[in-house]
From TrEMBL:
Matches recorded under NCBIfam families: PRK07827.1
Primary enzyme class: lyase
Record's keyword annotation contains RNA-binding: no
Name by which UniProt lists this protein: Enoyl-CoA hydratase
Keywords for the protein's UniProt record, in alphabetical order: Lyase
InterPro entries: ClpP/crotonase-like_dom_sf, Enoyl-CoA_hydra/iso, Enoyl-CoA_hydra_C, Enoyl-CoA_Hydratase/Isomerase
Keyword Lyase: yes
Taxonomic lineage: Bacteria, Bacillati, Actinomycetota, Actinomycetes, Kitasatosporales
TM spans (from-to): none
Matches recorded under Gene3D superfamilies: 2-enoyl-CoA Hydratase, Chain A, domain 1, Lyase 2-enoyl-coa Hydratase, Chain A, domain 2
Enzyme Commission code(s) on record: 4.2.1.17
Length: 245
């Protein structure tokens, strides 16, 4: 079976690369399961100080794979795993991020992007809502900005993503921006990092505990709706859905 999660390690930092370029790293059931397995191994490995989540190709993630979508429960579990992992997780983005891929960014502890990255919550344009990914997004981002981009599906750039709280930093050279953070993590005590991360993620996990069941049910209901079927069919056929005026 083709590997869809690339892995490498340098000085205690494990890099996990989404590597399903044929589907623009869309979140398929197999990709979600593969990433969850890799994260579990990193969490148990005492030699891993931090994890960098990145991608191959020009897209970090195109969102849910419409042909092989993960079950909402599996996506919730993956997002929670990123938040709860006892190692800091840093996103490294050099391309486009859409829909569910933005949930991955929000679940990471730090997120860095290059100047050519673009972002969009495109769910409403195919007849669904950014339900499950709201679990890490709502506690970590500016509510007014999120309202605009949730409701309109507009595309925005890395500077706006920093302003809204989706990104930690954006730079022409993403690796140059990432380097000081990685060096800081390498100089930090592992147990202290784990406990500090626990402090920082407490409010995010409260949201999971309170809202995960309701948002999972909402996601499943919307994906089974007539509007979603029309929206997804229109997307795959590269046409406007019937409701466009």
């Amino acid at each position: 079976m083709t590997t869809i999660i690339g892995r490498s390690r340098t000085r205690g930092v494990e890099t996990l690369s989404l590597d399903a370029t044929g589907t623009r790293n869309a979140l398929s059931a197999r990709l979600v399961a593969g990433l969850a397995d890799a994260l579990a191994e990193c969490g148990k490995d005492p030699d891993v100080r931090a994890v960098v989540l990145t991608h191959t190709g020009n897209t970090f993630s195109a969102g849910a794979d419409l042909r092989e979508p993960p079950h909402p429960d599996a996506l919730v579990a993956l997002l929670r795993q990123l938040v709860e992992l006892p190692k800091p997780v840093l996103a490294r983005v050099t391309g486009h991020v859409r829909a569910g891929g933005l949930g991955l960014l929000a679940a990471c502890d730090l997120a860095f992007a290059g100047s050519t990255a673009t972002f969009a919550f495109t769910e409403v344009r195919i007849g669904v809502a950014p339900a499950v990914i709201s679990l890490p997004l709502l506690p970590r981002t500016d509510p007014r900005a999120l309202a605009r981009y949730y409701l309109t599906g507009e595309r925005f750039g890395p500077e706006e993503a920093v302003r809204t709280g989706l990104l930690t930093a954006a730079a022409a050279d993403v690796d140059e921006a990432l380097a000081p953070a990685l060096e800081g993590l390498r100089r930090s005590a592992p147990e202290a990092l784990a406990e500090t991360k626990r402090l920082l993620t407490a409010r995010v996990l409260e949201t999971f505990d309170r809202d995960a069941a309701d948002l999972t049910a909402l996601s499943a209901r919307l994906f089974a709706s007539d509007q979603a079927r029309e929206g997804m069919t229109a997307f795959l056929e590269k046409r406007d859905p019937a409701w466009v005026v």
